[in-house]
Amino acid sequence: MDIARRLEIRGPDSRSWILLLRPITGVDSALSGLVDDLSGLLQRDVRPIDLEAISPEELIEALQKPRDDVAILSANVSPGPALWSSLDLVRSALERKGPVIFWLPTESVALLSEHAPNIRSFIGGSVYVVGGSGGLMTEQERRKRLEELAKRYQMTNEEIVKRAEAKTLSSKPHFIEWLVLLGRGDLV
């Protein structure tokens, strides 16, 4: 699995922050597959934490005990601006030795970027789209999805990148997904 390999290369003390755009369907089985794959490949505990069921204070405590496992912060519905703002204010308290992986619907990225810019900076370009199996999309799945988006919006990949660079691209979830699929999560 690509995410496990990336974390393995970065080392056990990398303090990695990653954002995974979860699949639209099969979310529970994909998350379960991700947990199993990461646990098996990294030989570390992997702990999903439901962002919808925890306060910022409880999240801080949960991320610190233990500090070195792989924490997957998941949400089936996009967390609102208030939660992102609260988390951004306590971002330093969220830092830990182990990796933090966000497992979110695509529409969350715009809210996270707008209301939690410091957390977004921790993530940097480590934004990926997950396929139905829980791993990153295959190259074939990625190309097919890019073709679907280009056809739907009657735009080219180059146009999307130019608009994003010029900051004239809408923050619609499909455009965010498109940039991530192009490997330009840095423009989100």
How would you explain this protein's 3D organization?
The chain starts with a helix and ends in a 7-residue tail after the last helix. The chain folds into two domains: 2-137, P-loop containing nucleotide triphosphate hydrolases (Rossmann fold, 3-Layer(aba) Sandwich), CATH 3.40.50.300; 139-188, no CATH class. The mean pLDDT is 86. It is 51% helix and 12% strand. It has helices at residues 2-10, 27-42, 56-64, 81-89, 91-94, 108-115, 117-123, 139-153, 157-165, 173-181, and strands at 17-21, 46-50, 70-74, 100-104, 127-129. A five-stranded parallel sheet has the order 2-3-4-1-5, with helices on both faces. It is α/β, with parallel strands linked by helices and 188 residues long.
Q: Examine the coordinates and then state which fold CATH places here, giving the name of the CATH topology of the largest domain.
A: Rossmann fold
> What is Rg?
16 Å
Q: Give the CATH architecture of the largest domain.
A: 3-Layer(aba) Sandwich
Mean pLDDT metric = 86
Counting H and I runs of at least 4 residues, what is the number of helices? Answer: 10
Which CATH class of the largest domain is shown? Answer: Alpha Beta
CATH superfamily of the largest domain: P-loop containing nucleotide triphosphate hydrolases
Name the beta content range: 5-15%
Number of strands: 5
Q: Brief overview, please?
A:
This protein is an alpha/beta fold and 188 residues long. The protein has helices at residues 2-10, 27-42, 56-64, 81-89, 91-94, 108-115, 117-123, 139-153, 157-165, 173-181; strands spanning 17-21, 46-50, 70-74, 100-104, 127-129.
